[in-house]
TrEMBL record, chain A:
Transmembrane segments: none
Organism: Teredinibacter turnerae (strain ATCC 39867 / T7901)
Cofactor binding annotation: Binds between the large and small subunits.
Names of required cofactors: adenosylcob(III)alamin
Gene Ontology molecular function, alphabetical: cobalamin binding; ethanolamine ammonia-lyase activity
Gene of this entry: eutC
Name assigned to this protein: Ethanolamine ammonia-lyase small subunit
């Protein structure tokens, strides 16, 4: 449709390669009306998504239904020290720590021999990401772990409400796990309200800093696939166990077989 | 003594107490704080005497209110206490900042850098000032651009942070506008009347075609003179190298007078250089205390090593500023590494780190960390102006990522306000993102359109070398650099003919069409 006073961009066809807002056209040099309002609708939705609560019962049911998780026992439901969403947003220090009442429960679950790995799920800033993507991601991860030549002794899976990344350190420390993988809802973007972030920490304990973690981001059907995320995570886990560390000294040196890497630099701006 | 006199009676006592730095019980959980030399500051208002244990407390309480300082427990308890602190701070001699380290010299390499590189000669002309005098002088005609450049080596970040706390927003704009900082690599950044952009073509899986699509979009809107810089979706080394090669080939093929950067960890950049990757700029997020930088996984030696490595490649054509730093208020608190300081003071200390390594660009990502540090549009706007002014005073090519997250109380209107204020203040560069929506980092910043708006209303222009290229490529009208050509330039229109059938079928498969 021709819009008066809007200069269209002939490269609009490139939108099939990216969710980025390219080829929007312009009124003068400003945004055309319909693009301005489309943006504001997306922003309104993203703001609402931050406050959408996690359906914990449904998530636990989804996770319990995974055959590989079932032998680990019931999903452990935990709370951080943040009482509600508003406090969570304003007090990140509360979101990083477990509620005092949860510690004895975890003691009860810790094993005489150390677990190799604890999987901790936290709602973070997008319950939608956790709701939709945790179960398939866990399935992919467990399948990858199963195929590793060295066994991985897993701790009971934990879900923390109003949790931030570092809360996984405390959970894993209490469980006496050698490593923790935290699956957490990333801040919702306008076009990606459902991105799952994955953080790996070796020898987790309260006080670990971010330079001691490895992160895999943007895990969702339209972003990094579950299988690719699991492949990279397994690489990092194996290296972490071999080198006894995580963080900036643990480099991701995987060579990917996905088209992204194989394509290298080739694209329409650089035809061969 | 009359009441009026007593109201104006300021007492700054330099009693040279030795005490434990103990800001408040709220931060007792932080690392054991050592014995440092402190001076006690106090002020009497009527019959009430206000005490401030040391400069750190005084600075924190004098800061305009914001979420992160409340979170850290260092904020003034009342609005009146804040102004009292500002009044007391205004009477502190600048010399005190050289005698009272806010973070102990022995335990922090950033403090050592600040103290060890301070120039007494450059400081001499302003050495008799109080913080309040310093503000007056900065706003006066005596402080022109050349004079400000001369005193830079005599300024410590703490002096600059202190004076900014007693400045209104218009003061921050006026003083920043006076400061000129010019840097260069393949073009010249920061000339008067120029306003540059970083083309940020991020993609959630680093797909090269998706990234190229955003690059084309940006170039067609005149964006990318500060840098074409990608935040990679992972820290995978092979992927970083691929991206570096791709950016280098695009810049070479179209002869774009700009530079590229893949914003990966400094240790990755060093390794990439060793592996022969075509790296223009070394990136690193930096903080204002050694402990913050430790949490980022680097130290000052890494930065020195990286700068030397990148300079040895000699890839610049008109200059050799090879570093690109990003900063932002709240990172030290977030890393539990703020030593009881307010977040703005930590931020300005960061600029001491930056200026040591001659950066081409420094970018404060002002609203990125989240509402726990800057709660809403008002706090983000104030912080953006502070960062820009303080960075410029210390001699840095300051850009601002005018941005917010979806869990903050802010929207595009707030960004328009900050963008306009910064452009008036002579901001070096801002971000350019398709439609202001970063699909990888999940936040909103400024769009290509936004930059053109600022250039249009204020008569600002792109870097000269880049502007000449925009004209040559027929992206802007000849002799009218502010006006985009309506038709797509031939060179780039032809690139769309290279879109193969396989490209489109892959894309359809991905989107499920």
């Amino acid at each position: 449709m021709k819009r008066p006073h809007v200069v269209a961009n002939p490269w609009q066809q490139l939108r099939r390669f990216t969710d980025a807002r390219i080829g929007l056209g312009r009124a003068g040099t400003s945004l055309p009306t319909h693009e301005l309002l489309a943006f504001q609708l997306d922003h309104a939705r993203a703001q609402d998504a931050v406050h959408l609560p996690l359906d914990l019962a449904r998530l636990c049911a989804d996770l319990s239904a995974l055959p590989a998780l079932a032998p680990l026992g019931e999903i452990v439901q935990l709370r951080s020290r943040a009482a509600d969403r508003n406090q969570y947003l304003q007090r990140p220090d509360f979101g990083r720590r477990l509620h005092e009442d949860e510690i004895p429960r975890l003691h009860h679950l810790s094993s005489n021999t150390e677990y190799d790995l604890a999987i901790v799920v936290a709602d973070g800033l997008s319950s939608q990401a956790v709701q939709q993507n945790t179960a398939p991601m866990c399935e992919a991860l467990l399948s990858a772990l199963h195929n590793d030549d060295q066994p991985w002794q897993l701790a009971p899976t934990c879900v923390v409400q109003q949790g931030r990344v570092a809360v996984g350190d405390e959970v894993a420390e209490q469980l006496k796990a050698k490593a923790v993988v935290v699956l957490i809802g990333e801040r919702p973007g306008l076009s990606s309200p459902d991105s799952l972030g994955i953080y790996l920490t070796w020898q987790p304990k309260v006080g670990r800093h971010d330079g001691e973690r490895n992160c895999i981001s943007n895990v969702r059907p339209q972003g990094l696939s579950f299988s690719e995320a699991a492949r990279r995570l397994l690489y990092l886990l194996k290296e972490s166990r071999r080198l006894q560390l995580s963080g900036v000294d643990l480099k991701d040196r995987t060579t990917s077989d996905t088209s992204t890497i194989q394509n290298g630099a080739k694209n329409f701006l650089l035809p061969s | 003594m009359s009441t009026a006199q007593s109201l104006l009676m300021w007492k700054i006592q330099n009693d040279a107490y030795w005490h434990f730095l103990c800001i408040s019980s709220l931060i007792n959980s932080f690392k054991a704080l050592p014995l440092v030399c402190n001076m006690r500051y106090s002020y009497t208002l009527g019959s009430t005497r206000y005490h401030f244990t040391n400069l750190a407390e005084l600075m924190a309480k004098a800061t305009p209110a914001r979420a992160g300082d409340r979170l850290a427990g260092v904020i003034a308890h009342t609005a009146q206490e804040r102004v009292i602190a500002q009044m007391a701070l205004a009477d502190v001699p600048l010399k005190n900042f050289l005698n009272e380290a806010l973070v102990p010299y022995e335990e922090d390499e950033v403090t050592r850098l600040i103290i060890d590189t301070h120039s007494a000669d450059a400081f001499a002309p302003i050495s008799h000032f109080t913080v309040g005098d310093f503000r007056n002088w900065l706003l006066s005609d005596a402080a022109d651009g050349a004079t400000l450049a001369q005193i830079r080596p005599g300024l410590t970040p703490e002096m600059v942070a202190a004076v900014s706390k007693i400045m209104r927003n218009q003061d921050l704009i006026l003083v920043a506008k006076k400061c000129q900082v010019t840097t260069a690599f393949r073009n010249t950044i920061g000339l008067p009347g120029r306003f540059s952009t970083r083309l940020q073509p991020n993609h959630p899986t680093d797909d090269s075609t998706g990234i190229a699509a955003s690059i084309l979009d940006g170039l067609m809107y005149g964006s990318g003179d500060a840098v074409i810089g990608i935040n990679p979706a992972t820290d995978n080394l092979a992927q970083c190298q691929n991206l570096l090669h791709m950016l280098d080939e695009i810049i070479q093929r179209y002869q774009i007078p700009t530079q590229s950067c893949v914003l990966t960890h400094v240790t990755n950049a060093i390794e990439a250089i060793e592996l022969g990757a075509p790296l223009d700029l070394v990136f690193q997020s930096i903080g204002g205390t050694e402990a913050t930088n430790t949490s980022f996984g680097f130290n000052l030696a890494h930065l020195a090593q990286a700068e030397a490595a990148a300079q040895s490649l000699a890839r610049g054509t008109v200059g050799n500023n090879v570093m690109y730093f990003e900063t932002g208020q709240g990172s030290s608190l977030s890393a539990n590494a703020h030593w009881g300081l307010d977040q703005q003071t930590c931020e300005v200390r960061t600029y001491a780190v930056a200026r040591q390594y001659n950066p081409l660009l420094v970018n404060t990502v002002v609203g990125f960390i989240g509402p726990e540090y800057l709660f809403d549009g008002k706090e983000i706007i104030r912080a953006g102006l502070e960062d820009h002014c303080c960075g410029k005073l210390l001699g840095l090519p300051m850009g601002v990522d005018v941005c917010y997250t979806n869990h903050a109380q802010a929207d595009q209107n707030d960004m328009d306000t900050l963008l306009t204020l910064l452009a008036v203040a002579g901001c070096t560069y801002i971000m350019g993102i398709p439609g202001a929506d970063d699909i990888m980092l999940n936040y909103q910043t400024t769009s290509f359109h936004d930059a053109l708006y600022a250039r249009q209303v204020l008569g600002l222009r792109a870097a000269p070398e880049f502007e000449a290229w925009l004209e040559k490529m027929q992206i802007v009208e000849t002799d009218q650099p502010a006006k985009l050509v309506d038709a797509m330039p031939d060179t780039f229109a032809r690139t769309l003919e290279h879109l193969s059938d396989s490209d489109s079928s892959d894309a359809r498969a991905e989107t499920g069409q």
